[in-house]
Prior knowledge:
Helices cover 36% and strands 13% of the residues. By secondary structure, the protein is of the alpha/beta class. It has a six-stranded parallel sheet, with helices on both faces. The protein has a three-stranded antiparallel sheet with strand order 7-8-9, with helices on one face. A two-stranded antiparallel sheet has the order 10-11.
Amino acid sequence: xxxxxxxxxxxxxxxxxxxxxxxxxxxFGADVIKVERPGVGDATRKQLVDVPGADSLYFTMLNxxxxxxxxxxxxxxxxEVLTRLIEECDVLVENFAPGALDRMGFSWERIQQINxxxxxxxxxxxxxxxxxxxKVYENVAQCAGGSASTTGFLDGPPLVTGAQxxxxxxxxxxxxxxxxxxxxxxxxxxxxxxxxxxxxxVLNLARVKLRDQQRLQHGPLKEYSQYGEGxxxxxxTPRAGNDxxxxxxxxxxxxxxxxxxxxxxxxxxxQAAAWEKVCDVIDKPEWKTQAGYAKPPERLDKLNEIFSTxxxxxxxxxxxxxxxxxxxxxxxxxPILSMKEIAEDEGLYxxxxxxxxxxPERGEYLSVGCPVKLSDSxxxxxxxxxxxxxxxxxxxxxxxxxxxxxxxxxxxGAVGDVKAEAAE
Length: 424
Ligand code: CAO
């Protein structure tokens, strides 16, 4: 038995933010029914196509373990089928542009009338306010949520990060909201609306930078490299390069082979508790007691010199040798892993964090498995559905359409190209 077994999700999501949420719910055991426009489907099916004719990796990697029904929600019969789905499902998840669901005739008020127990979960770019009507994509959220202004180097432009904190980050937040609302429904018997704005989710993940914004009022941020370099602070949290976000100085340092390999680097933290061991490893034992180096505050104006000296040592080792030497000494380091190295790491496949998935159109591909491991509800990754693959079985098995009723729905053109025999 899976944790969310018996929970039905009406998945009205598309692109990335919403689908990451419903994929997690599917991995936790919910029956996720993805509603897609007939003949078109989620736009990502045909975005960044690598295998002609096959669903893209963008789609397949975000829609595992779901069922797909083709349904035109603007057609009268389509609306009738959608109403039946709302009656049957526990949760409706959507991330359409602001107002799109209302324009279809399915406002929150209407949805509650149809099914008072349903939980409706929505992702929008911004919360209520002057930008509420904007359509928003990943990088817009990273910029509006304070991440871009605090990412990058001091002398360069703001940077977006490769981790999809706006889309997948918001999907994670929404998933937590849905499960929490399901938990509350156990006590109240009522559904509720769960809303996540991408700006808010990014800001939540950039929380420590708002911490620093307020600390600035009480003086310079001494753990930032620019303090040691004598560069004055402005009135907003600056970009901090690869400085660590906490109170322990850290940097990315070159390792053996860096001249050829763009990822031959390690992250290296000179945590106060491990300072003496760092000094021994890099053969600078005198720094353990020398004034100006022995105590953490004294080191802050010498970080460039200290990290350059450590880098002379890391350049003589591979990033994995640095890890092997430092880890037993409790010196926090981490190799900069390329996606190629991650894709080849059998240890990640052994834990289910990476998976190999078979697909009828594209053959085997790699994906990231469920990152949350439940001991009583292990996630098994199943391939994403083809467009409308489950239309027939959802109409008949979930919604109970039979005989003439089924033929009427199929004949209406609202559910794509379905064979009545398949549904019967
Ligand atoms: N049947 C009939 N019509 C359907 C349908 C279906 N099954 N599914 C969707 N549609 C319609 C919608 O009703 C909408 O019609 P109207 O414009 O007439 O109301 C239309 O398709 C387009 O939907 P959309 O505006 O949501 O899609 P878009 O490609 O123009 O915008 C996006 C995409 C992501 C910018 C927008 O949906 C959005 O801002 N979503 C919220 C924030 C978000 O999740 N962003 C992250 C996406 S991942 O990077």
